[in-house]
Design a protein that fits this description.
The complex is a heterodimer of chains A (223) and B (417). Chain A is an all-alpha fold and 223 residues long. Chain A contains nine helices and no strands. Chain A is flat and about 50 Å long. With 417 residues, chain B is of the alpha+beta class. Chain B has 14 helices and eight strands. Chain B has helices at residues 3-8, 37-65, 88-96, 135-154, 186-189, 208-215, 233-252, 254-261, 268-274, 287-295, 301-318, 333-352, 362-372, 380-387; strands at 108-112, 116-121, 157-163, 171-179, 226-230, 321-326, 356-359, 391-398. In chain B, the strands form two sheets. Chain B has a four-stranded antiparallel sheet, with helices on one face. A four-stranded antiparallel sheet of chain B has the order 5-6-8-7, sandwiched between helices. In chain B, a hairpin with a 7-residue loop joins strand 3 and strand 4. Classes of the chains: A mainly alpha (223), B alpha+beta (417). The A-B interface holds A 37-40, 66-68, 87, 112-116, 118-119, 122, 125-126, 129, 132-133, 136, 139-140, 143-144, 188-193, 196-197, 200, 204, 223 and B 3-5, 7-8, 14-16, 18-24, 46, 49-50, 52-53, 56-57, 59-61, 63-65, 68-70, 74-75, 269, 272-273, 287-288, 290-292, 295.
Chain lengths: 223, 417
Amino acid sequence: MSRKDNASRRVGLAAAMLGVVAGVAEIVAGTVAWAGNKNDPTTLGWVTIGLGLLVGSATLVADRTLRPSAQLGSVATLLLCAVLGLTTAGLAWIPAAAGATAASALITRQARPAGAWQAAIRTQWASALVVVLALIYLAFGVVARDLVGLLGISGAGLVFAALAMRYRSPRAAAVALVVAAVPFAAATAWTVVTPLTVVLMLAIGLPHVLGGRAAISSAGGTL
Amino acid sequence: MNPSQSLAGPRSSSQPAPVDARPHGATTGSGESTLSRRSLLRRLGIGASVAFVATDAAIAYRAYDQGVLAEERGPAFDAWTAWRAGSDTLSMVGAAVLAASAHNTQPWRFAVLDDRIDLYADLSRATGANDSLNREFDVSLGCALENLVLAAGARGRLPEVELVPDGRGDRVASMHLRQGAVVNGPLYQAIGSRHSNRSEYRSDPVPSGNLAAMADLVDDSVAPARLVWLTDSRDRRRFADLLVEATRAHVADDEQSKASFAWWRSDWDDIQRHKDGLTIDGVGLRPLVRTLGKLLPATSRDSADHTFIDRTVLQGRSAAAFGAIVVDDPAAREERLAGGRLAQRLHLWCAAHQLGFQYMNQITERIDRDHQLGRGARFEAPLADLVGDGALVAFRVGIPTVAGMRSPRRPTAEVLR
């Protein structure tokens, strides 16, 4: 392993540790200005700890894989966590955010082979966007609770399943996507967000899953 | 040599095959890259998709941050579900904190003793120029007192109310508790479902039997408060016009407008932190419009004032009936407290019978404001012409088009002395 590889791992894991410390500090300190004066510091503290662990996991994944799509996913996760943590732990997250951003920059610099990431983006962009939309469903499902919340959580799960099965059975994947997306949006149509999300999910996801086999043949693999 | 090979070194068997980094459709014949139309469209499609998803994610975050999917939940709303919990006396306070109050200021404190509960005024919660002579402030305390009395009855206590026991002090009432029969009536049961309903009401008139039943709620315990109904279409129109005129005067008065807007809470964190004030949930909007209101940036005072006028026009036009509580002397605290008790009773009755109820106090607010500024109260005579002398508070009733929603509440623990 090169010194650069070590650097990204060390920085990423340090960021993860700082993130976990920020979460613990928020839980212990309660509602304080440096943690963003949150009304529910305990829950958000736990979310912050989760983000810290996610930073660590993304770093390790990037460290141990050579798959461009996985590396790209790790970098996106690191950057997303860097931003999200600022909303859960305020100033306390800044060291972790800086570390996660630095780690993502180091991983990007070490990307091998050159151009592989562009190829990954070319074949996986639609999957990535649908995953983002599914994560919105998941988050809203958790917040909504009860039966409606269950629709969101199970809908997100089914979207992931649809993406996974798109090469084997594109039609089944398309049906799964519709079944996953529509009920939650219908039940929460007044939120504006879920109807918008379902439109995007179907507009981007359906052509993507229906073209699953074509994607394999044109890309020469699934990356 | 392939540049990727020179950077990556010899490829191991576990490494993926190098991928051609050139975009589809690119050519390198003469050293210059050109994009085919198909490739350009593809890139534009990807760019647009990313932009749409990013926008959707940003809106989703805003919706999460504004509690769009967590309506009526969180610390600010726990009082609505926990109001029967705790000891007998604490559950009585739990019922009292759910009472109506002007601008949802909840201007009360309670002292729980062995054989009585004292109700105190919290003057730090007065609304200043909005309620210049603290009329609504005292009426709000009367509303809390009525809930306290109903809850005492439901717990098998016979409440004996003493108004303003210390003269002009901040202890406005004492409720002495003796053992008595359990009175667990529909008004008590409606405490947790009573909400101001500011939506447009249906055009159907309220059955006269309902108005008569509400008039029957006036008894000696709220004397000298009386109830006056305005059901005739001509009277209703005159009252509605007066309301709109008073609202315009309210908005034109910078101090009054500021004092009113100070209790507007548009941020979800603020709502959960303060647990009081007026929120978009209480405006009576349809769900989709309500959500848009939460997603858009916080409203300005100017915009809120315009909405106030527009909503008043709508509310006035759609009222099936206006009511007014009149007393002998609207300036007397005891009479205001009695009027507040009657108002709360009427409101609970409406909640128990799925009728909408909303205070319409712009006219009396302007009368008090004019008195405070030492000028002629121009709304006093027209109001007296409609409901008689001594108008304390006014309200409208009707069949709502949108269900009323919970307003934020400070729980029992935060209002004990």
